[in-house]
Amino acid sequence: LAGRRAVAALIGDKSAAKSILYSKPEKALTKLACADAAAAHRLEPPVPMQFIYSKDDSIIVCCGVERYLQEVNGRPNRNGLALPRTWCIEKSRHCFHKVNFREEYWKCIKIFGSSTMA
User: Helix, strand or coil for residue 16?
Assistant: First the structure.
């Protein structure tokens, strides 16, 4: 319970940390928060992929996932592979997809698993 309160204090609507972050220029924040996609592209093997994400995720923004997907699709080492499977959910908090959409989530996982193990 204490952990949940700490998280709420940090990322809640009235968070002092959020107020400070929102006062900074967007470019400065996004530069610090972005993953090194070049390293991922260099090291990630050409394997089947599935992305499950949400349009209203406040931790990993939808446009970041979709930009990464475009980059993945453009990799030369993925020629001949199927495009990554995607499921974009309109409203679902970060990491709550399998809670909020339990049946759909596991159906998606099973389809991906069976398609990759065939």
Answer: helix
Whether 34 contacts 69, CB under 8 Å: no
> Which of the residue ranges 19-33, 52-66, 98-112 has the most confident prediction, judged by mean pLDDT?
98-112
pLDDT digits (tens, 9 = 90+) for 24-53: 887 877 776 677 788 888 899 999 999 999
Long-range contacts of 16-22 (CB under 8 A, 24+ apart): none
What is the distance between the alpha carbons of residues 7 and 74, in angstroms, rounded to a whole number?
Answer: 37
Kindly compute the dihedral angle of the four CA atoms of residues 98, 96, 26, 44, in this order, to the nearest 10 degrees: -30
Gap between the Cα atoms of 63 and 27, Å rounded: 15
The dihedral over CA atoms of 36, 42, 47, 48, expressed in degrees to the nearest 10, equals: 40
